[in-house]
Amino acid sequence: MTDGQRAAEYPTGLRERKKRRTRDALLHAALDLFTTQGYEETTVDEIVDAVEVSQRTFFRYFAGKESAAFAVQEMVESRFIAELRQRPASEAPFEAMRRAVLCAWNSIGEAIEALIPVELHMRTYQMIESTPSLLAAHLRRSSELENQTALLIAEREGLDVTLDPRPRVAVAAFCGVMRVTGQLWGHGRETSVDSLRTLTEVYLDQLGPALAEDWRTPARGHVPHVSDAAYGQGHNTRATPPGCAG
């Protein structure tokens, strides 16, 4: 994490710290209400009453309920894009995306855990997938992120994404892995950010061979059961990929 990123996430001024505490309290209250009584059933009035602030204060930090529901996801996605932008030009596209997402999780895990309990983050993920309006928004956001990433990869490689399909194909495969790992973690038994990072790393490491191998026969090094590989003892979940910002 760079000094600038640290300063943005952990403001030092008294006024800024107070604003951050208010935003964090509103987010925590919103996600807790969404996941206990339902997203559609929760009103902004109930959220602000829980924190004892006005509606005006809520809308100072969030455009609406949907903005609050995706606040943590927005933080993760922004960090991934920032990490991808600074990956060395010498890295191949998939390797750049792989290292960017692992570096992002290295630096953002503690930020998430400081913001909300990981168990609440998991329940929020499940709530989004089970709420039709949020699921539609999630799919739209995923499509927008995929397009943004493809454009960035094309720029890195000096390609015209409208003429060369390779950036979109590579990003589609990468984003498919991210969706699968998110779903498995969101419905799994492990409730830590480290477990999500490890699960992501295991699946990304399997993607290249999986695209090339004959699926009708067991592949060398194949992971037969994801929980065994992702949550096995001795896996260093805090290992920092080469080139990550300190």
Layout: helices, strands, pairs:
Elements: H1 3-9, H2 14-37, H3 44-51, H4 55-61, H5 65-69, H6 71-85, H7 93-115, H8 118-130, H9 132-157, H10 166-186, H11 193-212, H12 226-230
Helix pairs in contact: 2-3, 2-8, 6-7, 7-10, 7-11, 8-9, 8-10, 9-10, 10-11
Mean pLDDT: 80
- Shape category: globular
Strand content: under 5%
Distance between the termini: 5 Å
Number of strands: 0
Can you give keywords for this protein?
single chain; 246 residues; mainly alpha; 12 helices; 71% helix; 0% strand
Written description of the protein model:
Helix content is 71%, strand content 0%. It is an all-alpha fold and 246 residues long. α9 packs antiparallel against α10. The longest helix has 26 residues, at 132-157. The radius of gyration is 19 Å and the shape is globular.
In a nutshell, what does this entry contain?
The chain is an all-alpha fold and 246 residues long.
